[in-house]
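Continuing the batch. This is chain 6 of the set; chains 1 through 5 are on the previous pages. Same settings as before, nothing changed between runs. Recording input and output for traceability.
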Amino acid sequence: MDSLRIGILGAAAIAPPAIVTPASEVPGITLAGVAARDRQRARRFADRYGISRVYDSYADLIAADDLDAVYIPLPNGLHGAWTLRAVAAGKHVLCEKPFTANADEARVVAGAVAASDRVVMEAFHYRYHPLTARIRQLVDEGTIGTVRHVEAHLCFPLPRFSDIRYNLDLAGGATMDAGCYVLHALRTFGPGEPTVRSARARLHRPEVDRAMEVHVEYPGGATGRAVTSMWSARLLDVSLRIVGDAGTIRVLNFVLPQRYHRLSVRTAGGRRTERVPGPATYTCQLRAFRDAIVHGTPVLTDAADAVRTMALIDAAYRAAGLAPRRPTGQVQPPGGHLT
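Output for chain 6:
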């Protein structure tokens, strides 16, 4: 394969940093097409970013025989349906998080992926950055002893309540957006798979969370806490804390470390800080996606991993007295301002 030809399903705001810029930095990648609900929007996107072809619809892009893979940055409730269609059409898929609307849908998608030979990756880009590998190395080497507590925060202000991330019909809510990162982080850095013990949501409107706090327990008795919000008194907080019986690891900005980050380790021997160099997380992710397709490199955030994360999200919603999200129920986005 001389070049991996990728089509973008939706001219979403996340696409330029998540796929367009990385495509210029990762050899062997060609952004070969885009489709959007509004063809003129797709044309403007293609012209701005040098993409050669605009497809008339999402379905046309999925069916195209001149594409090898698709990137799906659509609203949450549409992820599962379009991933299924892409895999059925023989495409590899890089799907934005969260993978699906709920764990049941994730299991259906994972089953289809397992029955295919396609690479499907959930876009938890932080997982592919050297900072994440370094944190896990410190934990695995026993630098802080046995892990007793893991805490992850991702809070930012999103007061534009018309944003689709607050739209229940599109599987919105803070836990689906920012919260999936911190729950995934509890899985990534904790001592085993966590179980939700309690959760408390703050609502924007009925069933739509603007903030969530989740408490978990790991096998062996360690605990965890995930804090997330799109609108709360905690305006900006992107942090990770791992407490062991011999020390503590703290990380400022584990999600986008290329912008700025600080890793600190405190043990009986004192405190030290580190900076872990590396490309942008999105570049690391796209390189891993290419390598999985071309070289068969294992995918860290595959469909099976996504099922476990979605199950944790569902459990958090139930513990907070809310229902898990539901798929949008159609494969073509509704009207309005969707991409």
